[in-house]
Design brief:
The protein is mostly helical and 100 residues long. The chain is built from six helices and no strands. The longest helix is centred in the first third of the chain and has 14 residues, at 19-32.
């Protein structure tokens, strides 16, 4: 269950624009639960913001393998993500190639 706190840490660091720290925290989410699609969308978003587009696209592809119907909008709604985080997250996930 350690992935849940790391998810929150990743989101807060991402929201503050601390993308390298967010990427490190997202890696811990992934390590704790590599079959959770949210771990991969966090990796995709942080990599996209850091300009690591190949890594972002690879993580995005894994999101779609684990959750074929994934959309950015539905995920933001499901997690009830505040617009201050949803907007940069949506932008980054779009850069990674995930559907809106």
């Amino acid at each position: 269950m350690s992935y849940a706190p790391w998810f929150s840490i990743t989101a807060s660091r991402f929201q503050r624009g601390e993308y390298e720290a967010a990427a490190e925290a997202a890696q811990k989410v992934f390590q704790a639960n590599p079959y959770w699609s949210s771990a991969h969308f966090l990796l995709a978003a942080t990599h996209a913001k850091l300009g690591r587009l190949e890594a972002a696209r690879s993580a995005a592809a894994r999101v779609l393998e684990l959750q074929p119907g994934f959309t950015i909008g539905e995920t933001c709604a499901a997690f009830d993500i505040h617009p201050s985080l949803a907007e940069p997250l949506s932008e980054a996930l779009g850069m990674a190639g995930l559907p809106g």
